[in-house]
């Protein structure tokens, strides 16, 4: 990847880390971000079993996330969007409790998927400047909207479901996804 040419660092070897997150990311962060940008099924897999994404680097799901069409710009954009969404979730956590807090905590990757889907991050094209191609304020706004909507959608569709296993269930998340996406699009 063209990370080095941009001045960014991509730590992909076991045990490697990035000391300044403004200047790079590691394999775990890139994997989570790319999976949530790829689709609901991959976002659920990340939530349920991150290590499965690296199980066999010669086939899916790894090859869907890491292949010759994935550019450093795409990885960096996905990571930056993820960091903004995660920050919005962290800011909201102290303000909610009970079931809503559980939905927020366990639905974090689902919220991330919805924001990635809204901005169509999976189709970001290569850029030489590595600048975020979306307005940061708009990302924050959409993250907060998704956070606002997720409890309502979950409580309406699955009022008796426990949040922890709910967001690890592809079938249920496939049911929730279009509804959350429609709410974000309409807002």
Structure in words:
This protein is mainly α. It has 10 helices and 2 strands. Helix 3 runs antiparallel to helix 7, helix 6 (98-106) packs across helix 8 and helix 7 crosses helix 8. Strands 1-2 form a two-stranded parallel sheet. It has helices spanning 3-6, 27-38, 40-49, 62-65, 72-92, 98-106, 108-119, 136-157, 163-166, 170-186; strands at residues 9-11, 24-26. 61% of the residues lie in helices and 3% in strands.
Quick overview:
Helix content is 61%, strand content 3%. The protein contains ten helices and two strands; from the N terminus they run αββααααααααα.
Beta content: under 5%
Q: How many runs of DSSP E, i.e. beta strands?
A: 2
Distance between the termini: 36 Å
- In which range does the helix fraction lie? 55-70%
Q: SSE string, helix = H, strand = E?
A: HEEHHHHHHHHH
Shape: globular
Q: Summarize the main sheet.
A: 2 strands, parallel
Runs in which pLDDT lies below 50 for 5 or more consecutive residues are: none
Cα Rg: 16 Å
Lateral arrangement of strands in the main beta sheet = 1-2
The averaged pLDDT comes out at 90
Count up the helices.
10
**Main structural class:** mainly alpha
């Amino acid at each position: 990847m063209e990370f080095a040419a941009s001045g960014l660092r991509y730590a992909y070897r076991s045990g490697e880390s990035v000391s300044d997150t403004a200047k790079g990311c590691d394999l775990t962060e890139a994997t989570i971000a790319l999976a949530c940008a790829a689709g609901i099924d991959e976002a659920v897999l990340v939530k349920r079993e991150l290590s499965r994404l690296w199980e066999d680097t010669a086939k899916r799901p790894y090859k869907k996330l890491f292949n010759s069409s994935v550019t450093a710009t795409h990885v960096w954009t996905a990571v930056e969007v993820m960091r903004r969404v995660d920050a919005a979730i962290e800011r909201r956590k102290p303000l909610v409790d009970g079931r809503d807090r559980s939905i927020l905590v366990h639905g974090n990757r689902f919220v991330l998927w919805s924001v990635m889907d809204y901005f169509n991050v999976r189709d970001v094209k290569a850029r030489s400047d590595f600048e975020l191609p979306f307005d940061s304020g708009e990302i924050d706004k959409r993250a907060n909207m998704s956070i606002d909507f997720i409890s309502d959608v979950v409580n309406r569709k699955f009022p008796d479901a426990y949040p922890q296993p709910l967001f690890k269930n592809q079938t249920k998340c496939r049911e929730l996804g279009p509804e959350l996406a429609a709410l974000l699009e309409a807002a």
